[in-house]
Amino acid sequence: MTTLLSPLLDPEARHVLDLDRQAAAPPFEAGTPEEARRAYKQGFPALQGEREPVGSLTERTITGPGGPLTLRIYRGQGAVGAAAPALLYLHGGGWVIGNLESHDEICRWLANMAACVVVSPGYRLAPEHKFPAAIEDCRAVLSFLQDGAGDLGIDAERIAVAGDSAGGNLATVLCLLARGDKKPPVAQLLFYPNTDASQAADSYRRFADGYGLTSATMAWFRDHYVNHAGDIDDWRVSPLKAASLAGAAPAFVAIAGHDILADEGEAYAKRLEDDGVPVVLRRWPGQIHGFVSMGRHGPAARQAVGAAVAAWRGFDPVLGNAQAD
Predict the structure, then answer these.
(1) Distances in whole angstroms, Cα of residue 130 to Cα of each of 111, 127, 136, 210, 266
(2) Residue 52 pLDDT
């Protein structure tokens, strides 16, 4: 069946959807997680934007709660050599796919635009490692940054957290878990975050099929991540269900207008505001889920990253004094 697409779609989003239909690849839920990872690895280079040079790029391995964790560390152009602002970036991919390569260009843009150090971890993926493995890994990396700031040349009091989609989910949960830390995150930069695993919002109906990420695929991701249905109501899976969001880091939230996750992203931003957390909410009405990873096909991806950095500057007066991109 052919889906009649919204006339309000941006041309670049429509072009990406046309390419997807022409490829006629089976949906992820038609195969195994390993097959989905292979398909994603083959497909994402055709979408990504320019991988611009950064000041330096290194990798290191730390001991995580489930074994070794690889970190990719980007020092942006213009980043100071000591006490630099830092950003922990958690890649998307439905907790099942995605890796250090799939979000490399976003990390480079963030590092250069903010003149900061970006750290991206290869956290454990489901279904081999179900909830809460991914969040445990992310928590360990944040602690590593907080405790080893001097060695890394970053400021432990100026660490922000960011992520897209499932990575946005992990970022929101991490910021809630870290509220009691001595040096909690100073900002959370969220690109179309997943905040409610019940998947009952109306946007799941409006954009169920034909707009990239489908309702069926999102259910497949979730069901690989959780151990059982009871996990869906755990706020560490569905942060929108947390009793209170008060004390969380100031947030930037980017919404794609034609996205099954649009309504829960909007709801999370409102919950943050209602609980007294500063929020910058930006909407890209004509865009689809994942557009920040589609920089090859238009300017919206880089615009969204730039908006996130601008919001971060607004939350952090010291960063705000840095030269803008």
Answers:
(1) 30, 5, 11, 28, 27
(2) 96
Of the candidates 102, 120, 165, 203, the residue annotated as catalytic is 165
Q: What is the mean pLDDT of residues 77-91?
A: 97
Whether the model pTM is above 0.90: yes
pLDDT of residue 323: 45
Full set of structural domains in the chain with CATH: 25-320 (3.40.50.1820)
What is the structure's pLDDT at 49?
85
**Structure tokens, 1:** 């069946």
Rounded to whole angstroms, the Cα distance separating 68 from 132 reads: 17
51-56 contacts: CB < 8 A, separation 24 or more? 51/104, 51/105, 51/108, 52/105, 52/108, 52/109, 52/112, 53/77, 53/108, 54/108, 54/111, 54/112, 55/79, 55/111
- Contact at 8 Å (CB) between 226 and 232? yes
Task: List, in order, residues 6 or more apart from 21 with CB less than 8 Å away.
Answer: none
Q: Parallel, antiparallel, or unpaired: how do β-strands 251-258 and 188-191 relate? A: parallel
Q: Is 143 a catalytic residue?
A: no
Q: Give the phi and the psi of residue 90 in degrees, each rounded to 5.
A: -110, 115
Q: 133-147 and 166-177 are packed helices; what angle lies between their axes, rounded to 10 degrees?
A: 60
